[in-house]
């Protein structure tokens, strides 16, 4: 696939916050003695390190170099300095793809998380058939960003298909969504929201961690449901919420398949579903502008990285880690 | 995705192997009696079966040459070819498309076949219209194996029922628009009389040629001005506003099937080899029809080399590659095997030898009738023509959805063309 430099799940800065909090508790080792455990550790890590260097780091550095060149796959790359980056800002289509992707991220991620949390709250209480419901809600995510699902959605939202008819029967006449520039992106956002299984499972685990006695104490004090949710549940699961938010945001920036399938690789109608990665793919693999595509990929790394850093900064205000009340 | 990754691995392995062999000094030169030619083409499984028959025949006639074919669908074919070319693993003989010819030839990766002409390759039998096809600045980078003509398709039953005049040679664009309105009116837009032809760059080319102009000039510039393009997009305005042609939203939804194939329209412009596709997709019986023209003496149509064969500039077996190309364009038995599956054959011998049935027969008859009216083909499109084609589709979509005026659209296209053709 398109080798963007974003193939890792956690943003580059993910290590810092954690390191700050867990002050290294390992005893300082005495000098001079060979650290056998350390060596063994590296030996076991070596396949991964090799893979990382050869398959991730190497290509990333290569694409960084290529982003400063004019490279069409056939002839040797020609150094052009910052030309590719300058050209980006004059490229209406690139600006359009940035717009579309930002809308997608800011709308689909909160909706998806809200849906995932709501369903997790329903499923956390023990009741009969719980296992079945959990699996059922998780199923769409198993199908994941697969081509077949996108095809099904495309069929559902066409003119005179299921959705169109259902809406028409209650007096909402939208016509098909697939061919309508005002609705097509909404259709892809819905598709993303529907696949809330992965964050839901993580929320479930988080909800189970909330100590029961907190709720019991709140009951004694006469707190209502909303109050309990706002004052106990949300703060207690805020680390999980933050984790999900970060993961889903970075993933949403890299969305590709759904638009590629629903719009037949065009990003249409009228550019309304031109995701960033889809435009990158078009530039790199249909127009052979590999240097330009590399510059696009690095802009995406910068953009998504910036958002991740921002989320980390903001998280200090609302994420509560039990045990660090002293801050 | 996995498939592409795998093919790349194969490619790399092949390159590594080849490098190893060369390093070991066992690059089997010609005449060693054991030559392996790699031959790649695009097409489907049906064509693959026929291709294998043709290859078996070739190997029978040329002992000592083995042909290793690979094929894929059109889009992935070009993706694969570009990566192979970049990695130095270009096949010895490859199928080429007119739109991509310059893209590859300009980069010096195709063999000039003139050096083989008269020895291992005979191009004398090519149809008159094809004598120079594949030539750029005196060098021959590709030889056509089949041709197609841009045409109008219509559904006679729908036209007749609506009382619309049937298409006839020399009819005008105004006549056509009227017929479209008549059909849409009588069927209640099911189907529409036609699809919005202003989103097809080929229709624009047809109109330009009818006026004596062209899409691209010999030196790779645009052959028209902004004004003329704006006029072209305006032609569709009134048809769209009155809801007489298939609306953009419906056309987008039907993709990858075209409106005619999806039975949304009763007429449409396309290349004549699409008749096979329409026969399969559409419920209506459609037929090839005369195109509308602004000048009855100039139809603007030409025989386009739809399928061509090229050889890699880096091939070790130039003579054998040329022999294979020669066999594919000249051997009458090959024509018998393929019929019309590769378009209508490009040489006189093969055209006579091929037996057409059904759809192929209809295409051949259409082309034969036009043969005297067909004009010379345009020069090979400049590198970047593919990008312009994609941009044309995108901008016409904007016009079709009423998000851009024809003037603004024409300005944007011209600016894009300027950037693309003169980087």
TrEMBL record, chain A:
Boundaries of every ABC transmembrane type-1 domain copy: 98-311
InterPro entries according to UniProt: ABC_transporter_permease, MetI-like, MetI-like_sf
GO cellular component: plasma membrane
Region (Disordered) location: 1-35
Domain of life of the organism encoding this protein: Bacteria
Keyword list, A-Z: Cell membrane, Membrane, Sugar transport, Transmembrane, Transmembrane helix, Transport
Annotated membrane topology: Multi-pass membrane protein
Compartment(s) where it occurs, according to its Swiss-Prot or TrEMBL record: Cell membrane
Listed Pfam families: BPD_transp_1
GO biological process: transmembrane transport
Transmembrane segments: 39-66, 102-124, 136-156, 183-207, 228-247, 291-312
Chief location category: membrane
Alphabetized PANTHER family for the sequence: ABC TRANSPORTER PERMEASE PROTEIN (PTHR30193), ABC TRANSPORTER PERMEASE PROTEIN YESP-RELATED (PTHR30193:SF1)
Family in the record: Belongs to the binding-protein-dependent transport system permease family.
Name assigned to this protein: Multiple sugar transport system permease protein
Provenance organism: Spinactinospora alkalitolerans
Automatic annotation (TrEMBL), chain B:
Keyword Transport appears in the UniProt entry: yes
Highest taxon of the lineage: Bacteria
One Pfam family it belongs to: SBP_bac_1
Transmembrane segments: none
Alphabetical keyword list: Sugar transport, Transport
Coiled-coil parts of chain: none
PANTHER family named among the record's database cross-references: ABC TRANSPORTER SUBSTRATE-BINDING PROTEIN, ARABINOSE-BINDING PROTEIN-RELATED
Protein name: Multiple sugar transport system substrate-binding protein
């Amino acid at each position: 696939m398109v080798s963007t430099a974003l193939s890792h799940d956690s943003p580059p800065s993910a290590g810092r916050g954690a390191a700050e909090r867990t002050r290294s508790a390992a005893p300082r080792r005495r000098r001079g003695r060979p650290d056998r455990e350390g060596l063994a550790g590296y030996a076991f890590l070596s396949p991964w390190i090799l893979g990382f260097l050869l398959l991730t780091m190497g290509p990333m550095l290569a694409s960084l170099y290529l982003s400063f060149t004019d490279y069409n796959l056939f002839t040797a790359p020609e150094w052009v300095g910052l030309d590719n980056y300058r050209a980006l800002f004059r490229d209406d289509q690139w600006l359009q793809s940035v717009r579309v992707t930002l809308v997608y991220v800011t709308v689909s991620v909160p909706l998806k998380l809200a849906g995932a949390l709501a369903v997790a709250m329903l499923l956390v209480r023990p009741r009969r058939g719980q296992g079945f419901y959990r699996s059922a809600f998780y199923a769409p995510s198993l199908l994941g960003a697969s081509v077949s699902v996108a095809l099904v959605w495309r069929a559902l939202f066409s003119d005179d298909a299921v959705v169109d008819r259902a809406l028409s029967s209650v007096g909402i006449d939208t016509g098909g969504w697939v061919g309508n520039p005002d609705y097509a992106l909404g259709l892809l956002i819905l598709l993303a929201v529907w696949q809330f299984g992965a964050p839901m499972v993580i929320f479930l685990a988080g909800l189970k961690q909330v100590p029961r006695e907190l709720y019991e104490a709140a009951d004694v004090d006469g707190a209502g449901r909303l109050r309990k949710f706002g004052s106990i549940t949300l703060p207690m699961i805020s680390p999980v919420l933050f984790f999900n938010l970060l993961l889903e945001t970075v993933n949403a920036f890299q969305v590709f398949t759904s638009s590629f399938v629903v719009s037949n690789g065009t990003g249409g109608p009228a550019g309304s579903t031109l995701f960033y990665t889809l435009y990158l793919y078009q530039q790199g693999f249909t127009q052979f502008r590999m240097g330009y595509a590399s510059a696009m990929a690095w802009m995406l790394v910068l953009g998504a990285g910036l958002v991740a850093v921002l989320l980390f900064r903001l998280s200090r205000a609302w994420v509560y880690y039990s045990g660090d009340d002293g801050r | 995705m996995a498939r592409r990754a795998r093919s790349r691995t194969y490619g790399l392995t092949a390159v590594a192997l080849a490098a190893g062999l060369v390093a070991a000094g066992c690059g089997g030169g010609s005449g060693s009696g054991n030559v392996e030619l790699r031959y790649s083409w695009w097409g489907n499984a049906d064509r693959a079966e026929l291709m294998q028959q043709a290859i078996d025949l070739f190997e029978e006639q040329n002992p000592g040459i083995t042909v290793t074919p690979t094929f894929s669908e059109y889009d992935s074919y070009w993706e694969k070819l570009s990566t192979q070319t970049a990695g130095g693993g270009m096949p010895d003989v490859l199928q080429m498309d007119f739109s991509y010819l310059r893209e590859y030839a300009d980069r010096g990766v195709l063999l000039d076949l003139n050096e083989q002409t008269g020895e291992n390759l005979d191009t004398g039998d090519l149809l008159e219209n094809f004598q120079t096809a594949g030539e750029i600045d005196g060098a021959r980078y590709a030889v056509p194996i089949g041709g197609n003509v841009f045409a109008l398709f219509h559904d006679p039953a729908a036209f007749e029922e609506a009382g619309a005049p049937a298409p006839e040679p020399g009819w005008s664009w105004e006549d056509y628009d009227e017929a479209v309105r008549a059909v849409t009116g009588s069927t209640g837009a099911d189907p529409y009389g036609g699809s919005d032809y202003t989103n097809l760059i080929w229709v624009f080319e047809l109109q330009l040629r009818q006026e004596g102009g062209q899409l691209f000039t010999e030196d790779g510039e645009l052959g028209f001005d902004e004004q003329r393009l704006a006029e072209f997009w305006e032609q569709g305005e009134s048809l769209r506003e009155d809801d007489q042609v298939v609306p953009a939203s419906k056309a987008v939804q039907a993709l990858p099937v075209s409106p005619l194939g999806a039975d949304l329209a009763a007429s449409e412009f396309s290349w004549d080899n699409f008749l096979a596709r329409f026969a399969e997709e559409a419920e209506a019986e459609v037929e090839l029809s005369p195109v509308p023209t602004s000048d009855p003496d100039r139809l603007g149509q030409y025989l386009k080399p739809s399928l061509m064969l090229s050889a890699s500039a880096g091939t070790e077996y130039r003579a054998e590659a040329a022999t294979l190309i020669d066999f594919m364009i000249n051997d009458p038995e090959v024509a018998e095997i393929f019929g019309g599956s590769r378009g209508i054959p490009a040489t006189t011998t093969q055209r006579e030898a091929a037996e057409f049935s059904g759809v192929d027969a209809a295409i051949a008859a259409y082309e034969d009738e036009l043969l005297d009216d067909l004009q010379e083909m345009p020069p090979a499109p400049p590198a970047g023509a593919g990008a312009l084609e994609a941009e044309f589709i995108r901008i016409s979509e904007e016009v079709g959805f009423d998000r851009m005026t024809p003037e603004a659209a024409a300005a944007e296209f011209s600016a894009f063309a300027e950037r693309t053709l003169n980087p």
